């Protein structure tokens, strides 16, 4: 028996795709609880590319993981694509992530015995797409990222930057409503990084979608609509990158 994908509701056009209020998260180390997020409020609008920046340890990746439903917050409220994430069961969150989100995290998590094409096709095959169509779509996305010559290579035969591009292609292949990226250009040269972020933006900047990028890479700041500065578990400053257009 095949389980049908859960339907992802379309949020009202005026509603933010991500609406977080009072997000608190801490981790226990031995007998001590270490606060990481200290009451974060954040909205991400439809069609927006939002860049999270700040020093290491400021809480950026933790916030991204809470928004993804991978980590549970200690306090606060969180609505993602008009769904109350904190009211979902773990199975519901897993299905929601599979159908609505795309991820690029620092750990590539590629399957070592599969080729680049097969790795990228996996999310489509899980959704029930036929193999021929899934592979064709995977190849199309890989070629846009300059990986047309590495389609049959397994991860052990790819460089770190090439593995990163395969992971990015896997995130893009389903054209998710919400893209969550942690340092997507960390292992890439300037030209390749520019191409990768352009590909991400072709999905993330659509009117019914959004993208959050955690980054230290100042070269990609030009792609953001807002730059959100975090430090010590709090949002310290929000900078609009197109202020001239907003006036």
Plain-language structure description:
The chain is of the alpha/beta class and 247 residues long. The chain has one domain: Rossmann fold. It contains seven helices and ten strands. It has helices at 60-67, 90-100, 116-126, 131-144, 160-172, 190-204, 243-246, and strands at 18-29, 32-44, 49-53, 75-80, 83-84, 101-104, 178-182, 210-214, 226-231, 234-240. The chain has a six-stranded mixed β-sheet with strand order 6-7-8-3-9-10, sandwiched between helices. It has a four-stranded antiparallel β-sheet with strand order 2-1-4-5, with helices on one face. Helix 3 (116-126) packs across helix 4 (131-144). The protein starts with 17 loop residues before the first strand and ends with a helix. 40% of the residues are buried. Mean pLDDT is 89; it is low at 1-12.
If you compute it from the alpha carbons, what radius of gyration comes out, rounded to the nearest whole angstrom? Answer: 18 Å
**Gap between N and C termini, in Å?**
56 Å
Question: How would the global form be characterised?
Answer: globular
The secondary-structure class comes to: alpha/beta
Proportion in helices: 25-40%
By CATH, the topology is Rossmann fold
CATH architecture: 3-Layer(aba) Sandwich
Low-confidence stretches: 1-12
Which strands sit side by side, in order, in the main sheet? 6-7-8-3-9-10
Beta-strand fraction estimate: 25-35%
